[in-house]
Design a protein that fits this description.
The chain is α+β, with helices and mostly antiparallel strands. It has a single domain (10-125), classed as Trna Endonuclease, Chain: A, domain 1, CATH 3.40.1350.10. 29% of the residues lie in helices and 33% in strands. The protein has helices at 10-30, 79-95, and strands at residues 34-42, 45-52, 56-65, 101-110, 121-125. The protein has a five-stranded mixed beta sheet. A hairpin with a 3-residue loop joins strand 2 and strand 3. It is globular, with a radius of gyration of 15 Å. It starts with 9 loop residues before the first helix and ends with a strand.
């Protein structure tokens, strides 16, 4: 390394993740959803947001990117990640029974200046997998 300061992983990634999750949670609430959990964790994995509406309980994976230049953010929700999300959702539902239909959504947040972006763009995919 050439003496430049680089922050690796951890804290910086968590700040960015929190920014994207907060934007999506706010958007859900504006559309009459109730956010039940943020960053729900268990031994199977983590779900960024869990929200309830009239018919559905949604398990939302939030992906924050500066741009879609190389690939859409949703493309980073791999089969392995989907498997972990499903297992985590099953664990959640085992302790929180509901009559609502489960659904898996993906929210893409594009913020070219990170958490300093004035007008981030959210693309929301229902029934993503």
């Amino acid at each position: 390394m050439s003496g430049e300061k680089r922050e690796i992983g951890g804290a910086q990634a968590r700040v960015k993740g929190n920014f994207g999750e907060r934007l999506v949670a706010d958007a859900l609430e504006k559309n009459h959803w109730t956010v039940l959990e943020r960053n729900f964790r268990c031994r199977f994995g983590e779900i960024d947001l869990i929200a309830a509406g009239r018919e559905y309980i949604v398990f939302v994976e939030v992906k924050l990117r500066r741009s879609a230049r190389f690939a859409d953010a949703r493309e980073f929700v791999t089969r392995d990640k989907q498997r972990k999300l499903k297992a985590t959702a099953e664990w959640y539902l085992s302790g929180h029974p509901t009559d609502l239909q489960p659904r898996f959504d993906v929210a893409e947040v594009y913020a070219p200046e990170g958490d300093q972006t004035a007008q981030p763009v959210i693309r929301y995919w229902q029934n993503a997998f």
